[in-house]
């Protein structure tokens, strides 16, 4: 059973689809703690931008930025879930 600190992203999760093809993919080999910390930072900024977009009508660009940040965050979290659900990686 691997140590949770040794688990790394597999790099299997694509995001930002255009014409049914992903433009980006999560990189492999990132420690999952760092990946989750980064996803948390992305979600924080997305939340702040969404709040601004909700309060000020002329800030639709904030809404789009928030949407893209949420897409990236979801991809990172989904990639971490893949490694955590992989056989033999459950530390419990």
Automatic annotation (TrEMBL):
Organism: Pseudomonas thivervalensis
InterPro entries with a match to the protein in the record: DUF3077 (IPR021427)
UniProt-recorded name of the protein: DUF3077 domain-containing protein
């Amino acid at each position: 059973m691997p140590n949770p600190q040794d688990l790394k992203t597999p790099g299997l999760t694509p995001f930002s689809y255009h014409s049914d093809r992903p433009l980006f993919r999560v990189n492999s080999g990132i420690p999952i703690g760092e990946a989750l910390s980064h996803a948390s930072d992305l979600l924080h900024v997305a939340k702040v931008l969404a709040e601004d977009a909700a309060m000020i009508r002329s800030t639709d660009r904030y809404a789009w930025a928030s949407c893209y940040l949420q897409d990236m965050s979801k991809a990172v979290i989904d990639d971490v879930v893949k490694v955590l659900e992989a056989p033999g990686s459950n530390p419990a």
